[in-house]
Amino acid sequence: MELSPTTAGQPRRRDSLHPAHRWGAAAAVVATLVLAGCSSTGPGEAAPPATAVPPGSATSPDPLLPPQAAPAAAASAVPPAAAAPSPAGVPVHPATAKPAAAVPPPTWLTVPGTSIDMAVVPGGVSAGGAMEIPDAFDRAAWYRYGPAPGAAQGSAVIAGHIDTTSNRAPFSALKSLRAGAVIRVGRDGAPALTYRVVKVDLMAKDRFDGASLFRRSGAHELKVVTCGGRWLDERLDYSDNVIVTAVLE
Amino acid sequence: MRNKIFTAGAGAAAIAAAIALAGPAQAADGDAQLSVLHGVPGLTVDVWVNGDRTLDDFAPGTLAGPLALPAGAYELAITASDAADASSPVIGPVTVNLAANGNYTAAAHLDAAGKPAANLFTNDAAQIPAGKGKLTVRHAAAAPAVDVLAGGTAVVTNLANPNEQTLTLDPGTVPAAVAAAGTTTPVLGPADVTVAEGTHTIVYAWGSLADQNLKLAVQTIEGLHSSPASVPGARDGSADAGGAGSAAAAGIAALALLAGVWGVARAVAARRAEA
Fold this sequence. Notes:
The complex is a heterodimer of chains A (249) and B (275).
Chain A: H1 5-8, H2 25-33, H3 72-77, E1 84-85, E2 91-94, E3 106-110, E4 117-123, E5 139-143, E6 155-159, E7 182-187, E8 190-204, H4 210-213, E9 221-232, E10 237-248
Parallel strand pairs in A: 4-5, 6-9
Antiparallel strand pairs in A: 1-2, 3-4, 3-7, 5-6, 7-8, 8-10, 9-10
Chain B: H1 12-21, E1 32-39, E2 45-49, E3 52-58, E4 62-69, E5 72-80, E6 91-98, E7 103-110, E8 116-122, E9 133-142, E10 146-150, E11 153-159, E12 164-169, E13 172-180, E14 186-195, E15 200-208, E16 215-221, H2 247-274
Parallel strand pairs in B: 1-7, 9-15
Antiparallel strand pairs in B: 1-4, 2-3, 2-5, 5-6, 7-8, 9-12, 10-11, 10-13, 13-14, 15-16
């Protein structure tokens, strides 16, 4: 299928953070050691490393992202093919696999007026059950098993880091977005989409409502997610997720 | 207990209305979901539920439903497609017990010896962990025990009619083949079987080895996905709302992190010492 992360994930735009803005190497090393970061893994436990999607790794695809995987949203969005009602109204169809509808994956995300201008790659689920996000601060992940931007229904989730190992990342600007702000999403094989922010919420991580954030039915929205609130040393994590909700213009 | 879903003498229109009301969208709380699979080669049939014709001219390799039905016992009978009533079934009648909220597939298929039989399979419609899909293989063919091979490797072994095995897998497309147990030469396939995230894909091997008409039938149960447990959007505390961005705050954060690392190191060392 055409959803190969190795082709969809090529960065089209460069980050706008200047290296001079980064903190010292020592701090960076220290921070790297506590990479548990925003995960819920407690101190002292081995945190599963977030799996980055390497660019151009056509010969070594990420095992968590099988190239042939069919997006579940596509499958569930397709009504039973060739369903023919029987005389009594019972749907009857051939017992064959339904073809998965092709979904154009998002490839970049920009928020005019901010430094958010980055590549988007498909992301799945890490071994620990968290959404998989690239380590690179200038790349965001689209939750590949949920709806895509432009889907008929459900939330398309794009998430990225709020900080680097030493500084703020572009997504740190999300919490300051105002209603009406424009978010542009580029797609592979389909026209770019323009969304308008309707709200910015904080969701406490210890009351994380995944079913709401990752819903696959109902009105279509774009959810752009990062971390926020307070940094909690005892958790090596932020207190909240910042969730920007936007709707198609 | 017999649960009469259609009152005796109800007209065809009333039956149609009852069935239409029983559709998945209108399912009442506690209703069971029943699908019907036809896996007997060369035999077009009618399916009767509690004496009423529910499926007319039901062809091999087709799947009907799911129907939402109140929990209870139902009598299924399968007749020739031109039968006037259910009094001379070619399969059954069989009584199936549907539990509240259960998910079932009633399958008409050949037994291992090639005789038409009816079987009620219980489908696992539990939520699937985020990022995974489920695959069940059911042996519903006139054939001895088989192995199911994925890319040449046996992933299901010694599966006999009418048994099943279920695997939880990473989503993807599996080149699946069926071979006699203990062998690797396919008697069926390989065929691409897609395992979608959050979906339970059920594959039936049906037909007859002797008659060389083995086939695969596929049923999917969608919407079993669950959500990721978290969105880990941070690397360190650089964007703390309390004022990261100033060198002083960052320095304090770095010190705090350093202290955290020492704490972890001490904890690990202590644990090692205990071990």
